[in-house]
Here is the input.
Amino acid sequence: MERVIDRDALADFLRRRREVLRPADVGLPEGARRRTPGLRREEVAQLAGMSTDYYSRLEQSRGANPSEPIVAGLARALRCDLDERDHLYHLAGEVPAPPSGPSRDVPAGVLHLLDRLDDTPAFVVDVKYDILAWNPMAAALLGDPSAWPPRQRNVLWNTFAGPHSPSAMADPQTAAFADECVADLRAAAAQYPEDPGIHELIARLRAVSPEFVRRWERFEVCVRRGSTTKRIDHPAVGELVLECELLEIAGHGQRLVIYGAAPGSPAAEALRLLGVIGTQWMADLAL
Here is the structure.
């Protein structure tokens, strides 16, 4: 089928995206005083890996049809989000390929939401359960990920290879959670077959955890969604029974996880107390 390129709309999109970017947005120095806002054409061409002449002709609605690698380079150079990237592909007459892996960049709006949830534990994980962002209440409830080595900031790793994993697996709730997470990881591996982070995590877990291997070799697949009830035995405030909500962050391969409690419940009171003491309980345990 012949490719259909909307040259005028493509030129307009490239021009407008270039004009809203600042050099600092793409890691370039400001340099000499600029006559117009945004990036220069030669800067976009350099970032995209093409000649300035060819890029200029694209902005002028002329020149050779851009290939898929050229379109991909333009999307990277112009810092397009997923929707803008797909739009750019369509304007160029190309079919956008699916993302090769989950994003590690948490959307700014989600980060602002985490900041505003000052009385509710919440954090963001990607599809392989890497912990990408969290608020102080999540650190107070579950431990502070900033104190962990980066390779251990992963829910699955701590479930199967953490210091308390052997005893935790005897708990039916933890065992059921482990079942669901491994089935979920298999779905993620199929969704992002080229993601090196997923392959590395699977290899690391297979090397250290027979419990993971046993579940992985069941070949079960299940994407975790919706809400569940979680029982957490906290060393400072005791047992909490919380509602855990998983909210998809569309287009990023990420989920927002929120722990809540019914107003007036013992768990709500425990969360209120936890908000007061914060992560001080961890320092107390070290004394």
